[in-house]
From TrEMBL, chain A:
<dbReference type="InterPro" id="IPR042614">
    <property type="entry name" value="UBCD4_UBA"/>
</dbReference>
<dbReference type="Pfam" id="PF00179">
    <property type="entry name" value="UQ_con"/>
</dbReference>
<dbReference type="InterPro" id="IPR000608">
    <property type="entry name" value="UBC"/>
</dbReference>
<protein>
    <recommendedName>
        <fullName>E2 ubiquitin-conjugating enzyme</fullName>
        <ecNumber>2.3.2.23</ecNumber>
    </recommendedName>
</protein>
<dbReference type="InterPro" id="IPR016135">
    <property type="entry name" value="UBQ-conjugating_enzyme/RWD"/>
</dbReference>
<dbReference type="GO" id="GO:0005524">
    <property type="term" value="F:ATP binding"/>
</dbReference>
<dbReference type="InterPro" id="IPR015940">
    <property type="entry name" value="UBA"/>
</dbReference>
<dbReference type="InterPro" id="IPR023313">
    <property type="entry name" value="UBQ-conjugating_AS"/>
</dbReference>
<feature type="domain" description="UBA">
    <location>
        <begin position="161"/>
        <end position="199"/>
    </location>
</feature>
Automatic annotation (TrEMBL), chain B:
<keyword id="KW-0863">Zinc-finger</keyword>
<dbReference type="InterPro" id="IPR044066">
    <property type="entry name" value="TRIAD_supradom"/>
</dbReference>
<dbReference type="Pfam" id="PF01485">
    <property type="entry name" value="IBR"/>
</dbReference>
<keyword id="KW-0175">Coiled coil</keyword>
<dbReference type="InterPro" id="IPR047555">
    <property type="entry name" value="BRcat_RBR_TRIAD1"/>
</dbReference>
<protein>
    <recommendedName>
        <fullName>RBR-type E3 ubiquitin transferase</fullName>
        <ecNumber>2.3.2.31</ecNumber>
    </recommendedName>
</protein>
<keyword id="KW-0808">Transferase</keyword>
<dbReference type="GO" id="GO:0008270">
    <property type="term" value="F:zinc ion binding"/>
</dbReference>
<feature type="region of interest" description="Disordered">
    <location>
        <begin position="1"/>
        <end position="22"/>
    </location>
</feature>
Length: 199, 373
């Protein structure tokens, strides 16, 4: 089994490097420390979404029983999305769970995660807070996601209003990421966010 | 999968078969008697593994004969249709394709991308002309080595009846003969068949394994809703046929599941609190229905005597209500140190429950017979 997994991973990396990709997908896949069980993936945020222009990194852990069992994949880049945990980067995606098939590849997994960013499934959320905001305040959600893409994924679109609010909290002595999470989860209400932080 | 044969039980074998093979007329008298003395009486039987195997094989044989299919396929279809052979036969006469698709013997849409050339295996990424390839009805060919590993991984994870094709988005199920033709290791084959049997039991609405530790007896009954007390002939454990939890009438199955979840998890987690709140609501609901029944009973203008006895029951009910209220109040604030106290309180409530249940059902029966249309 060990043999199949290693062989498959090497072939899959080649497939991603040489693959005839659409430019927008721009996938990257590489080994960490020359170990086939530990990989890094990267893809670009889908166009016409709040994630546009960002580069999103994935941690990919390959089990010994690969491809008969799915890889364990999570975001290393902080993402604001209903199906991704804003804390751990865990992803809620069926093909990473019960819909996994041995014939699937890491390339298809990355493409699926990319399209998940473009089409969220708020009724099967990984992050309840984000999902609620997505449903109840879609505009604020999109702005928050864009802000996170700008800060954590190197996206080009600044949301100046949010930058300023984060700075207000930083001036109060709060760590930057903590401040951003508190504001994002409290619909960017500074009072509610500070209450949340100091309670 | 065998059970040590026990002479004491073997002696009774013949009688038991009579009981559950439908000669219910003979035991009618006994049924009536027992149902009078025991308010929670419920018709069921205790079967051994071999007896259940025989029972399942009868359905498999019936289906494979009437549809002219292999027993292996019959198992897949029976599993998908909760072992209702007659329903399958009727539906198959109407539309055989629909039955095969529903039970995932055939793909819903013919797979266009099926790898018919068999020159490379998409799973191991190897092009090997000496390797043998095989496919399910969907036509997704993979090398036999990969099939073997796929089945090994699935079986080790406890999957048996629902092992799927390895292709993306293909839901076709591998039937027993296909799996066994790729699995050589005897231990693995055994394990597969054991899981298969357990899985069949799970999908069979009339059967349930006794939940007693290492107990190999199986209950068979014809009703699977509401609290249903069954007593195991082997380990004497009292459980509920409907849900498998320790017997819990008159509380319903959902309430008891929440209660047990709470007990299993002694820490003060959010789960515990929400589960507990639900259990409490359900207890209240039970009392509410009792109240409604009570009002209904009154409106039937029962004779004075009955009404008098009812009044005393109402008192009892009020007491039980107080006990439960008391109990749930304590549970809500429960700390581990309260455990002994809680158990006492539960004991009191349980005693009242038993007394009340008996009276409750007695009156209910009278009531039902007097209000027959
Ligand atoms: Zn193969
Ligand atoms: Zn298939
Ligand atoms: Zn038992
Ligand atoms: Zn039950």
């Amino acid at each position: 089994m060990f043999n199949i997994a290693a062989k498959r991973i090497i072939k899959e990396i080649k497939e991603v490097i040489n693959g005839d990709q659409v430019e927008d997908a721009a996938l990257k896949l590489e080994l960490v420390n020359d170990n086939w069980m530990d990989l890094r993936g990267e893809f670009k945020g889908p166009p016409d979404t709040p994630y546009e222009g960002g580069a999103f990194k994935l941690e990919i852990k390959v089990p010994e029983t690969y491809p008969f069992n799915p890889p364990k994949v999570r975001f290393m880049t902080n993402v604001w999305h209903p199906n991704v945990s804003s804390v751990t980067g865990a992803i809620c995606l069926d093909i990473l769970k019960d819909q996994w098939a041995a014939a699937l590849t890491l390339r298809t997994v990355m493409l699926s995660i990319q399209s998940l960013l473009a089409a969220a499934e708020p009724n099967d959320p990984q992050d309840a807070v984000v999902a609620t905001q997505y449903k109840e305040n879609p505009e604020l959600f999109a702005k928050t996601a864009k802000h996170w893409t700008n800060i954590y994924a190197g996206g080009p679109n600044h949301v100046w209003e949010f930058n300023r609010k984060v700075e207000v909290l930083i001036d109060m002595g709060i760590e930057e990421h903590k401040a951003r999470v508190a504001l994002s989860t409290n619909d960017w209400d500074i009072e509610k966010a500070t209450e949340h932080l100091f309670s | 999968m065998s059970v040590d044969s026990d002479m004491e039980y073997s002696d009774n074998d013949g009688d038991e078969y009579g009981d559950y093979y439908g000669e219910q007329d003979d035991c009618e008298m006994e049924t009536v008697d027992q149902s009078k003395t025991d308010p929670e009486y419920f018709l069921f039987s205790c079967l051994r593994v071999e007896e259940v195997e025989k029972l399942l094989n009868e359905s498999i044989e019936l289906l494979s004969n009437s549809l002219q299919i292999t027993p292996s396929l019959a198992k897949v279809i029976l599993h998908a249709y909760d072992w209702n052979a007659q329903e399958i036969i009727d539906k198959y006469k109407e539309n055989p394709n629909e039955v095969l698709i529903h039970s995932r013997v055939k793909p819903r849409v013919p797979s266009l991308s099926a790898n018919i050339s068999c020159s490379t295996c998409a799973v191991c990424a190897t092009a090997n002309s000496t390797q043998k390839y095989s496919a399910l009805t969907c036509g997704h060919y993979f090398c036999n080595e990969c099939w073997a590993m796929h089945f090994e991984v699935q079986i080790m994870q406890g999957v048996s009846n629902t092992i799927q094709c390895m292709a993306q988005e293909c839901e076709v199920i591998a039937p027993e003969d296909f799996v066994l033709s790729h699995v050589a290791k005897p231990t693995l084959r055994d394990r597969y068949q054991q899981f298969m049997f357990k899985d069949h039991l799970k999908s069979h609405p009339q059967l349930r394994f006794c939940p007693g530790p290492n107990c190999q007896w199986i209950f068979r009954a014809w009703v699977r809703e509401g609290a249903r007390r069954v007593e195991c002939q082997g380990c004497e454990l009292l459980t509920c046929f409907s849900c498998g939890a320790p017997h819990h009438a008159p509380t319903d199955c959902i309430t008891i599941r929440l209660w047990l979840t709470k007990c299993a998890d002694d820490s003060e987690t959010a789960n515990y609190i929400s589960a507990h709140t639900k259990a409490r609501e359900a207890l209240k609901k039970y009392l509410h229905y009792y109240e409604r029944w009570e009002n209904h009973a009154r409106s039937l203008k029962l004779e004075e005597q009955t009404l008098a006895s009812l009044k005393s029951r109402i008192n009892q009910k009020a007491q039980l209500e107080a006990e439960i209220e008391n109990l749930s109040w304590k549970v809500e604030r429960a700390e581990t140190t309260d455990r002994g106290d809680l158990e006492n309180q539960m004991d009191i409530a349980e005693k009242r429950r038993t007394i009340l249940l008996k009276d409750f059902l007695d009156i209910n029966t009278n009531c039902a017979s007097s209000s027959k249309m």
